[in-house]
Amino acid sequence: MDYQPTCNTTWTWRRSCHVKELMKPGYTNCVWTGTAGDCSSSQGYKWLQGEQVKCDWFPLIWNKSSIPKHSFVGWLAVQGRLFTKDRMQAFGLPTNGICEFCLDAPKNHQHLLSQCIYNQKCWDSLMLWLGMTVPVQDVVQWSVNWRSRSLLKKQVVFTAITALWYHLWHARNVCRLEAKLFTSFFVLKKVISEVQQRCRQKLSTSKDQLPGALTGMQTS
Predict the structure, then answer these.
(1) Which residues pair with 28 in a beta bridge?
(2) Residue 136 confidence (pLDDT)
(3) Could you give the 3-state DSSP secondary structure of residue 31?
(4) Longest dimension (CA), the chain
(5) Cβ atoms within 10 A of the Cβ of 33, count?
(6) Residue 5's CB: how many other CB atoms inside 10 A?
(7) What share of the chain in percent tops pLDDT 90?
(8) How many domains does the chain have?
(9) Is residue 5, in this structure, part of any structural domain at all?
């Protein structure tokens, strides 16, 4: 337990010894704390993580119907980790800080997801297609509190929300880097098409019937 690697040992061995130092507090008299035997890698991993705070909005982002790349962008967006212009400025990168869509307010996560007129139009159209009314400003908290009788409907709605966030982020990047502005109808059409295809693929074995919204292109 007290061994320390010398400076001429390999990087891999030094890293292994570093992990040993991290794990030492979990041992008492060479016995793993809380067990009668040796430590397993899964036990050690959970111990190193410590007490974990439950993520209530997890189902909104990571459900079996969502497309992985959509979930990843949604996960970054909810945590304020997308590389928006306010974050670019914080890193010292040159940018005008103006929204590419409405050319008005500073570009940050709050503006991207809820305040921009362009994004609000896409959101309202998506809600019309889904036959729902969800306040875009409170969508994360709404997803935590929403109690739907149909798990299938919940998966479809959450899949559609993350798909919209992804395509808004993609449209923003195309506008910034290629000077091309997609219409809100084009963005919504992409979202609906991918949601339809994904849900039919992932939920095809379900005994429930797919929501009526998935059978048509109600984008008017």
Answers:
(1) 31
(2) 85
(3) strand
(4) 71
(5) 11
(6) 14
(7) 41
(8) 2
(9) no
